[in-house]
Task: inverse folding
């Protein structure tokens, strides 16, 4: 059971790292757009929800989790966390 828990934790970390990388990419792409109705979080969440087959709200939670972890570790925004 311990090994399964470690495997699950690794998979979660990899998924969040992918979300973080996508957020960083999209944040740069969308920075130049002044009149968007959605921000980078919404844009990334839309892609994440489509790929993972989850609700938009749940995907937003994953993006916010990345932002929270980034803030707590005092990384500058837009810098992916190293694994």
Result:
């Amino acid at each position: 059971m311990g090994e399964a828990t470690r495997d699950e934790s690794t998979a979660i970390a990899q998924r969040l790292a992918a979300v973080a990388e996508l957020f960083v990419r999209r944040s740069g792409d969308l920075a130049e757009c002044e009149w968007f109705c959605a921000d980078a979080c919404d844009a990334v969440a839309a892609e994440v929800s489509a790929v993972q087959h989850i609700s938009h709200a749940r995907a937003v939670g994953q993006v916010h989790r990345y932002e929270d972890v980034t803030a707590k570790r005092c990384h500058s925004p837009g810098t992916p966390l190293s694994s």
Notes: The radius of gyration is 14 Å. The longest helix spans residues 2-30. The chain has one domain: 2-72.
